[in-house]
Amino acid sequence: MGGTYIGVGMQEIDGERAKALKLHEEGGVEITVVEQDSPAEKAGLKTGDVLLRYNGQRVEGMEHFARMVRETPAGHEVKIDISRGGATQTVAVRVAQRKVQKLEWSDSAPLAGSWPFDIHLPDLPRTFMTLRSSALGVEAESIDGQLAQYFGVKEGVLVRSVLKGSAAEKAGIKAGDVIMKIDDAHVATPADISGQLRSLHGKSAVVLLMRDHKEVTVTASIGDDDPGGRLQITPFQVQPKPNQL
User: Fold this and answer.
1) Smallest Cα–Cα separation from 175: which of 190, 189, 153, 159?
2) What is the CATH number of domain 4-97?
């Protein structure tokens, strides 16, 4: 079995987004995805809702919310305060147990070949936050531990896909590359990349990659359209298959 979950994807909220969502207080995270037949959908949560409090505890960010969900036993009902269109309400959600799913990977078709790992899907662990950034044009997720060793790094951010015509594609970044540095700054999580993009929009950045266990350096021109590189989460947790490292 996987971990506990409620079935939402999320993103952090910056100042401009907070205004658009008509928030009356700082903090919280915005729901970007509600999984079909999930506890969140059954409770009536919707994309665009802002998660403010979990059983009375203020939501400080995506990782904080993810941890609270993971620490809640399956079957327990929790009260989540949300903001919807500027109005605050409380929703009851029954946390559930996530069944294990498997994803696969190949060089020619990511997620279609064979990973050396079973990938479990609890709700939103830190190690697999996903960055979807129109500024750079990638969907990428942080890796560490055994998965990082598999790619030949101690830590980094794995590129899952590259948008056509994006800064990443023009720079030669490919799915399967691991981003280790942007300019001179080490990156270990999507939040690190987001921070770098925020300061580099409209400029060029030197990106250090690990590709096929070899370091590769490329230069990417960061666009102005999405300087923050808003974060969304894909909920993955990795464990090695038996007899494989």
Assistant:
1) 159
2) 2.30.42.10
3-state helix, strand, coil in the chain (%, to 5): 20, 35, 45
pLDDT band at 133 (very low <50, low <70, confident <90, very high): low
Strand, coil or helix: what is 184? coil
Domain with residues 117-240, CATH architecture = Roll (2.30)
Q: What is the mean pLDDT of residues 51-79?
A: 91
pTM above the 0.70 mark? no
Q: Which residues contact 67 (CB under 8 A, 6 or more apart)?
A: none
Q: What one-letter code names the amino acid at 31?
A: I
Confirm if 176 and 211 have CB atoms less than 8 A apart.
yes
CB within 8 Å of 171: residues ≥ 6 apart: 207, 218, 219, 220, 221
194 Cβ partners below 8 Å, 6+ apart?
131, 133, 228, 229, 230, 231
How confident is the model over 187-217, as pLDDT tens digits? 887 777 777 777 766 678 889 999 989 999 9
In the chain, list all ranges with CATH 2.30.42.10: 4-97, 117-240
